[in-house]
């Protein structure tokens, strides 16, 4: 096999910058996965404004990180390329963000800046929003004396629900009003993760809005989730890097994404919220250390980052478990300290019940607590297995052949042993259980002390 040519410093730096840009959301991913419908709805609407001078308004609704901004960016990018090729007429894009533009004055100033209005506007900012906005549009019109018309303007309103918190909603009213009146070709696209956003709009604002709502769903399948990881990491020769480097880089990406630890991390993320942004940011750890000496993505830094992420995700879940679930965890810690390396629900419940009965007075005095009946405790125990805080033991380890799904569903070999008797193991260290109980002001002090024993 011929020796591989050394990768140049320029190539590595270029790839590193470009891929990290994608992973941190500064550079668009080369493809939108599973978002064809919302993409074409937004594109059609923007095209009507930019090419046919129509007024339009719409809300793009979807969970955080589901790709709402990515859809808008891609539509604008496509329009720019098409428009640039077919027409010399100009259009503008104005971006506002509810986090940044916390009042209408700030928004107005930025609208003027983005429309390249250089005149001093301080004197008009004291009047009404509508007057000031009309003044800005007139200034814009005067820049296009030949046509005498205001060119199309696309308003992208990120964190739309926060813009709806402005007093009187003058900004939204004015924009929707102009979009509806068709006198000036503007498109107003609001982006938000609040599905109830319509309830935030005042009646007069609603009356000016087109009521067009475009829904963006989170990634639907694990395959799509994996595909996003792949397109975010892969490079091609258009990126001004040698074909040899690009091809080997992409092979390494595929190997990395096929490794057991990465696959199970992606499955975990998909099961617990399908958070694309977190997936991309975790993958950045395999890219941030690229260098001429190590020009391909490596598994080791990624594994370390995934472990940290899993750990902190688990801690977050743990902070929200119910008091009964916490008591069962403490009971398991107790069993471990008594020398049991494996135990089943019956043993755990027994330990829990014994402690609670012995300390009933103190427990009841510390808050409205009772001894939960066995079926309720079994449900809580199953939740701990689903959350992977408790691990079912395999046949070799526990004496019966079953896994997590068998134990939960009562299927396969696990079926032979009633679920109350199947052996399990707590996945927390005693110190972690102590910290967990110490951080819970809502449990009686006696239970906190039980955890500290
Ligand atoms: N289906 C998808 N296909 C391709 N990339 C996606 C997809 N979903 C999310 N992404 C990527 O995830 C990142 C976050 O997406 P984006 O910023 O568009 O989300 P958002 O819905 O606007 O989030 P927020 O509500 O927090 O503003 C971006 O890098 C985007 O490219």
Structure description:
The protein has 453 residues and is an alpha/beta fold. The chain has three domains: 9-21 and 220-317, no CATH class; 35-215, Rossmann fold; 323-452, Arc Repressor Mutant, subunit A (Orthogonal Bundle), CATH 1.10.10. 54% of the residues lie in helices and 8% in strands. It has 21 helices and seven strands. The chain has helices spanning 9-23, 36-52, 68-86, 104-114, 129-142, 160-163, 170-181, 203-208, 222-233, 243-258, 260-271, 276-287, 299-319, 323-337, 345-358, 360-365, 374-386, 395-398, 404-409, 430-438, 445-452, and strands at 56-61, 92-97, 153-158, 186-192, 213-215, 390-392, 424-426. The strands form two sheets. Strands 2-3-4-1-5 form a five-stranded parallel sheet, with helices on both faces. α1 (9-23) packs antiparallel against α12 and α2 packs across α3. The longest helix has 21 residues, at 299-319. It is globular. The model has no long low-confidence stretch (mean pLDDT 87). The structure holds adenosine-5'-triphosphate. Residues 25, 29, 32-35, 62, 64-70, 193, 219, 228, 276-277, 280 line the site of adenosine-5'-triphosphate. Belongs to the ORC4 family. Residues 228-435 form the Origin recognition complex subunit 4 C-terminal domain. Component of the origin recognition complex (ORC) that binds origins of replication. It is found in: Nucleus. InterPro entries: AAA_16, ORC4, ORC4_C, P-loop_NTPase.
């Amino acid at each position: 096999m011929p020796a591989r040519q050394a990768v140049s410093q320029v190539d590595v730096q270029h790839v590193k910058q470009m891929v990290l840009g994608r992973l941190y959301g500064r550079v668009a991913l080369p493809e939108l996965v599973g978002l064809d419908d919302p993409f074409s709805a937004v594109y059609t609407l923007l095209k009507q404004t930019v090419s046919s001078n129509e007024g339009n308004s719409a809300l793009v609704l979807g969970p955080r990180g589901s790709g709402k901004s990515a859809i808008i960016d891609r539509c604008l990018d496509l329009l720019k390329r098409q428009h640039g090729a077919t027409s010399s007429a100009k259009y503008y894009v104005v971006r506002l963000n509810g986090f940044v533009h916390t009042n209408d004055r700030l928004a107005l100033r930025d609208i003027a800046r983005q429309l390249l209005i250089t005149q001093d506007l301080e004197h008009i900012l004291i009047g009404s929003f509508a007057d000031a906005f009309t003044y800005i549009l007139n200034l814009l019109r005067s820049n296009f004396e030949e046509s005498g018309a205001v060119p199309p303007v696309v308003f992208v309103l990120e964190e739309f629900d926060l813009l709806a918190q402005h007093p009187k909603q003058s900004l939204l009213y004015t924009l929707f009003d102009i979009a509806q009146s068709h006198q000036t070709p503007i498109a107003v696209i609001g982006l938000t993760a609040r599905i109830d956003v319509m309830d935030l709009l005042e009646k007069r604002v609603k009356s000016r809005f087109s009521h067009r709502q475009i829904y963006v769903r989170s990634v639907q399948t694990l395959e799509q989730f994996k595909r996003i990881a792949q397109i975010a990491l892969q490079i091609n020769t258009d990126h001004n890097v040698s074909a040899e480097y690009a091809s080997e880089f992409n092979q390494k990406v595929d190997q990395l994404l096929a490794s057991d630890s990465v696959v199970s991390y992606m499955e975990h993320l998909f099961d617990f919220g399908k958070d694309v942004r977190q997936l991309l940011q975790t993958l950045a750890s395999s890219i941030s250390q690229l260098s001429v000496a190590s020009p391909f993505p490596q598994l080791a830094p990624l594994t370390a980052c995934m472990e940290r992420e899993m750990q902190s995700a688990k801690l977050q879940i743990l902070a929200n478990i119910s008091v009964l679930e916490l008591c069962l965890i403490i009971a398991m810690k107790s069993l471990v300290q008594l020398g049991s390396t494996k135990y089943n629900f019956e043993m755990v419940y027994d330990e829990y019940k014994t402690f609670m009965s012995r300390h009933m007075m103190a427990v009841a005095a510390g808050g409205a607590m009772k001894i939960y009946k066995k079926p309720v405790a079994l449900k809580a125990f199953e939740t701990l297995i689903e959350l992977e805080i408790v691990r079912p033991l395999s046949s070799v380890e526990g004496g019966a052949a079953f896994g997590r799904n068998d134990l939960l569903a009562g299927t396969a070999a696990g079926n032979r042993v009633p679920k109350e008797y199947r052996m399990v193991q707590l996945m927390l260290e005693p110190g972690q259980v102590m910290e967990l109980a110490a951080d819970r002001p809502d449990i009686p002090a006696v239970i906190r002390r039980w955890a500290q024993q």
